[in-house]
Amino acid sequence: MKMPERSERLVQCMRTLSAIILCLFLAACGFTAPRYSDGYAELESLGMADVDQTLSLSIGPTLLRFVASHLDDDPEVSRMLRGLDGVRIRIYEINGDPGRVAARMQLMGEHLQQDGWESVALIREQKEETRMLIRIKEDQIRGMTFLTSDGKSEAVVVNLMGEIQPQQFSQVMLALDVGTPGVENVRVVENSN
To answer: Would you list the domain boundaries of the chain?
Structure first.
């Protein structure tokens, strides 16, 4: 028995409405990194003519806490992930002019500084360059952004949001398996005052 045309349209409308509600629910319940976080960085494009975005990942507090709850063998990393509100990772393949990509990354860093981010590290090694910026609110690090390029084939942008202890940065990056040159060597220098 064939459904009347009006009933078919109603069923289709209900399916579409259900899909929209599900998408809104998932977006609102912490699966993606929250834009409202003090540590959220406005990240600009590196230029469509010079890069192909190979990965764009946005992880919110719900997923971070889920992962943290399943890290029984590493309580320190688990505790660190519970303190994060979100993680955004963008990996680009450079298929154009690496010099233009480097200039755009520098401009992105300058724009972040104009928006209240502080540059805390600039590491240059041969053609590789890594910039690290932090955002401080109420005497706490609320965000950390990493801009890095190997100078020829790959660029990576990472934005961490939440309460971040500087000592945890390398652990966060290694736990998320972000292949950023030199991340395993980032160390905090204790203040001698």
So the answer is: 1-30, 51-178
Task: Give the three-class secondary structure for 13.
Answer: helix
| Residue whose token pair is 């960085």 | 41
Distances (CA, A) of 58 to 93, 127, 150: 18, 28, 23
Q: At residue 192, does pLDDT exceed 50?
A: no
Phi-psi region of 40 (alpha: psi -120 to 50; beta: other; left: phi over 0): beta
pLDDT tens digits for range 59-71: 888 888 888 887 7
| Mean pLDDT (the chain, rounded) | 75
Strands 118-125 and 84-94: unpaired
CA dist 83 to 33, 159, 162, 184, Å? 13, 14, 6, 20
Rounded to whole angstroms, the Cα distance separating 120 from 101 reads: 21
Nearby residues of 100 by Cβ (< 8 Å), 6 or more positions away: 47, 50
Q: Which of the four pLDDT bands, split at 50, 70 and 90, describes residue 115? A: very high
Q: What token pair was written down for 21?
A: 């509600």
